[in-house]
Amino acid sequence: xxxxxxxxxxxxxxxxxxxxxxxxxxxxxxxxxxxxxxxxxxxxxxxxxxxxxxxxxxxxxxxxxxxxxxxxxxxxxxxxxxxxxxxxxxxxxxxxxxxxxxxxxxxxxxxxxxxxxxxxxxxxx
Length: 125
Fold this sequence. Notes:
The two termini are about 25 Å apart. Helices cover about 20% and strands about 35% of the residues. It has helices at about 1-5, 20-35, 60; strands at about 65-75, 75-85, 90-100, 105-115, 120. β3 (about 90-100) and β4 (about 105-115) form a beta hairpin. The chain is globular, with a radius of gyration of 18 Å. The model has no long low-confidence stretch (mean pLDDT about 90). It is of the alpha+beta class. It has a domain at about 40-120: Nuclear Transport Factor 2, Chain: A (Roll).
């Protein structure tokens, strides 16, 4: 879309014709894609508001040393923690899963950087 804007003489920081409709379609498709995998209330903030390269979870595929750990904390709570490198940055994610209708659903997503123990809430998958 950026190339189309520039070729039409629209400045980079201006909204292109049709761009709001494109973002509305993106949000609709995002929700349809993830809603059946998320616990009630998790999507209260709606769809992810941005995307980029590399993608948020690209390190899971790109980093051969990436680690994924599944922990059952109780019958009603499980966690999946990931560690990997995105460039020179150590990236961590933790997804808390709760029972749903026959499968576990994402109830919370957190992220961290480096080897620290701090986790920060992420409102989007």
